[in-house]
Amino acid sequence: MWALRAAIVSVAAVFLAVIVFLLFAWRSEIPRDASAAEADFAPELIAKGAQLAALGNCIACHTVPGKPAFSGGLAVPTPFGTIHSTNITPDRETGIGGWSEAAFERAMREGVNRQGKHLYPAFPYDHFTHVTAEDNRALYAFLMTRAAVKAEAPKNDLPFALQFRPILAAWKLLSLESGEFEPDTGQSEAWNRGRYLTEGLGHCGACHTPRNAFGAEDRDRHFGGGEAEGWQAYAINGNSKAPIPWNEESIAFYLRNGWHEFHGVSRGPMAEVTGNLSRIPDSDVVAISTYVASIMGDPTPERAERAKGLIEQFEGDRLEQAADSQSSLISASGGHPGEAIYLAACASCHEGRRRQPFGGLNFALSTAVNAPNPQNIVNVVLFGLPPADGEASAVMPAFQHLLNDQQMADLLAYMRERFSEEAPWSGLAELTADTRSGEYKVTIRPSDGIERAPHNVGAEEEL
Ligand code: HEC
Ligand code: HEC
Ligand code: HEC
């Protein structure tokens, strides 16, 4: 009797909890706005929206390469499965043509679509939630004036439980800090602007911050290094492994131009980011750099001292002398199995006299050889850096058909030993084999930067 009563009470409690949760998770539909796609927007507002959309990298996620811009359908891989971006052109049936500005703003702020469905955080609304109403208006004006395209996104590939969208309300309760930032009065105006752009539309942390078991960014390891599209997004905080520490000037130069003398060109998903950032105002790039440099902090005296030596070696015309002295260094070092491969396949470009962004970076300057794992080197070496369509770009041949897994492992071990003081990497042949087989769904994009480099016209000639 007691057992029966207890069972009834617990079933009722569970039932009640489910109802309370569903009520909590429920969001109303915002009715279609029949005239939304025809509204008149001031040209200045649209132009501002275009810049903000570039900062938000909307086009990269919402466009399948070769398909119309913003028409969605790109597969965004997550540790939980594949989520497809949706069509954000003003098509009335398959896009956001019927969305009012309020519906758009709710999607950005709360990750809820017009129909009232919770959206997956593969759409980085955990960052976009900080965007002001004014900037959302400009973005809305920009998107509503794009060409309408009819295109339906493919079905997502997710485990059964995660297909149930109300569960995302629980995720938001745990992980979403919504709303605009209060300015930090202890910091400069540029820093506050930089924080707004970096943590908001720029969503740098979506790639550069590691994620916890729920797929949310781990705030205690802010900018500590994450992943994107099969690439490592290096640490850009105090743990940065760049041999010459980044500072305000070098970050601004890199974000604006897509390359830096001491760091090389931007590659993989970062190429898309710097390509887009070249379109935002200078003052905003400077603000982002002010903020990011403050997160990185000053290097330890030891690191600064080591960097000074490298700068003396590689700055400007000194690269030539460095190239000479290195060749002799190589002939002196003895018999690592990866050495012969390095000398035959890599040294001519990576220790040559061509300066950035045209030549290969000297690995003494490379973050990649100092990173916790060699994923980015494996990606670049296997798949190369393909030329950009119709523009000059830094090009590197692909070695996937020339080097087998063991040769790759030897090469990587040699590079780690010669160019870095970090502990050796392990599992190199396996990592290469898995990357080769497509296990990590590495996206290959042309590198960025050459089109904005000095003397671009002569990109093909020896400098
Ligand atoms: C990192 C990839 C990524 C970026 C960058 C991104 N989005 Fe998305 N977005 C997505 C994905 C994935 C979805 C689908 C989410 C879902 O189905 O739950 C989405 C959904 C949306 C939706 C909801 C559409 C609908 O019909 O439900 C809107 C609106 C939107 N994005 C606007 C934008 C804007 C504006 C930007 C740039 C400021 C942007 N997105 C940048 C990945 C991205
Ligand atoms: C879509 C993912 C993504 C986003 C968004 C992103 N990054 Fe990156 N970032 C990467 C990847 C991947 C790399 C490594 C690229 C490579 O190997 O060249 C990288 C490299 C960098 C580097 C070079 C680090 C080094 O030591 O070489 C800096 C600096 C950087 N990002 C800053 C930023 C800033 C600032 C933002 C925001 C405005 C940002 N990133 C947004 C993916 C991203
Ligand atoms: C034909 C010239 C050429 C050859 C040969 C070449 N590279 Fe490159 N490599 C480049 C260029 C150009 C870039 C882009 C500029 C930059 O950022 O270094 C690049 C970039 C890279 C990067 C990214 C830079 C970094 O440190 O993060 C890595 C890693 C790399 N190459 C590894 C190799 C290895 C290993 C070999 C030999 C198996 C090799 N490359 C052979 C031209 C070349």
From TrEMBL:
Keywords: Cell membrane, Heme, Iron, Membrane, Metal-binding, Repeat, Signal, Transmembrane, Transmembrane helix. Residues 44-147, 189-296, 333-419 form the Cytochrome c domain. InterPro entries: Cyt_c-like_dom, Cyt_c-like_dom_sf, Cytochrome_c-type_DH, Membr-bd_ADH_cyt_c. This is Cytochrome c. It holds the Pfam family Cytochrome_CBB3. PANTHER family: ALCOHOL DEHYDROGENASE CYTOCHROME C SUBUNIT, BLL4482 PROTEIN-RELATED. The chain crosses the membrane at residues 6-26. The keyword Iron applies. It is found in: Cell membrane.
